[in-house]
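Technical annex, item 7. During the second reporting period the consortium partners agreed on a shared format for inverse folding records so that results from different sites could be compared directly. Each record opens with the tokenized structure and is followed by the designed sequence. A conforming record, contributed by the partner at site C, is shown below for reference.
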């Protein structure tokens, strides 16, 4: 990683911590996986928000195989209605694990959601929220983060949802319409191409930055 990138990551992590989020940087995906797993107790009820990054670091597969208390929206052979029910129950989980569309160097998370389940859980419900994202999602300003969410993340998600809808129609299981993506208020509190960052949001949610 270039020195300039290291400086940007260090600044971002420092500002996340000022917003009451514990933040960690990992050079390797396996280290990010271990960090999350170590923070989940056997009795914790865990759940996922939609995130390619969470899948790519191996966390979905690991928890599916090793953690019994899991609301798993990625479980095989579940219907659309079952998946929606899992997403509703996930709001009552002990630990909610998700990604983010963008993250500013000042510690602001920006997300656009299809149904709002991910944004809802980040804001309220679960006792802890783990947000995992690659350093490629770090941006310099709120405006740049919103632009990334709108022009990069949202089109990719819309395409994925449309493909899923077409697949279910072809299989004669269940069809549904693709609604416009819902945009969240920025929270001030694609393949994984870069080293992952973990932001841990405790029950005390994000706040205005602390002053030194």
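Designed sequence (site C submission):
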């Amino acid at each position: 990683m270039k020195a300039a990138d290291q400086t940007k990551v260090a600044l971002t992590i420092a500002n996340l911590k000022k917003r009451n989020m514990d933040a960690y940087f990992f050079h390797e995906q396996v280290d990010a996986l271990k960090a999350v797993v170590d923070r989940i107790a056997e009795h914790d009820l865990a759940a996922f928000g939609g995130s390619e990054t969470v899948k790519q670091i191996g966390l979905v597969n690991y928890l599916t195989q090793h953690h019994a208390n899991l609301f798993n929206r990625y479980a095989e052979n579940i219907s659309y209605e079952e998946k929606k029910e899992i997403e509703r129950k996930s709001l009552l989980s002990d630990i909610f694990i998700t990604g983010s569309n963008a993250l500013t160097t000042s510690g602001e998370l920006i997300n656009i959601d299809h149904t709002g389940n991910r944004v809802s859980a980040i804001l309220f419900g679960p006792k802890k929220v783990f947000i995992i994202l690659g350093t490629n999602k770090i941006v310099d300003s709120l405006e740049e983060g919103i632009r990334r969410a709108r022009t990069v993340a949202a089109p990719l998600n819309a395409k994925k949802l449309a493909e899923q809808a077409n697949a279910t129609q072809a299989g004669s299981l269940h069809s549904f319409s693709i609604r416009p993506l819902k945009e969240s208020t920025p929270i001030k509190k694609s393949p994984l191409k870069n080293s992952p960052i973990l932001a841990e949001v405790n029950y005390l949610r994000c706040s205005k930055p602390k002053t030194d």
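The chain has one domain: 3-200. The radius of gyration is 17 Å. All partners now use this format for quarterly exchanges.
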